[in-house]
Amino acid sequence: MTLLEEFLKRNEDFVNNQEYKAYATDKTPNKKAVFLTCMDTRLSELATKAFGLKNGDIKQLKNAGAVVSHPYGSTMRSILVAVYALGVDEVFIMGHHDCGFGALKPQPVMEEMKKRGISDDTFNTLEHSGIDVSDWLKGFDSVEESVKETVNNVKNHPLLAKSIPVHGLIMDPETGKAELVINGYQATEN
């Protein structure tokens, strides 16, 4: 059985057994918050359970490193949609210790791309188009600095109301303990 077949079989059982009823909610988050967290598998459930959150409490976004690097990319667009269309009043940016994106080195990733059929011509075309794939794939040196930078990028976005608190946190992926990096309430008071 392929992974796809396994997933589809499990989905069929889930629907037939009406397991979905345990997750019933609507599209507006109960806690009026959006969380941007890393896609690290250790955070899949830990990131919400560690704060006592359940299905429907928040909007949750995930990407590599919990980073907003482009002001008009899909992650920032999702944050703005959450605020202006889905009733969100607060933004939480949560990185984590031992982040794989922080340790990411572009060259091994690019070599793996080549092994899987991405040609040097593709890299050359992108480079001539002004896209430095090596820079684009580069991780960060400090999770604390990355969280601060992402909070700054979100907080200072020209389309985000200044009244929206943007908080910065770092989670321990082993224990779920969260460290406060930036208190968004204090930033909105200034």
Automatic annotation (TrEMBL):
SMART domains: Pro_CA. Transmembrane segments: none annotated. It catalyses: hydrogencarbonate + H(+) = CO2 + H2O. Binds 1 zinc ion per subunit. Keywords: Metal-binding, Zinc. Its cofactor is Zn(2+). GO terms for molecular function: carbonate dehydratase activity; zinc ion binding. Pfam families: Pro_CA. Its EC number is 4.2.1.1. PANTHER family: CARBON DISULFIDE HYDROLASE, CARBONIC ANHYDRASE. Belongs to the beta-class carbonic anhydrase family. This is carbonic anhydrase. It comes from Jeotgalicoccus meleagridis. The lineage of its organism: Bacteria, Bacillati, Bacillota, Bacilli, Bacillales.
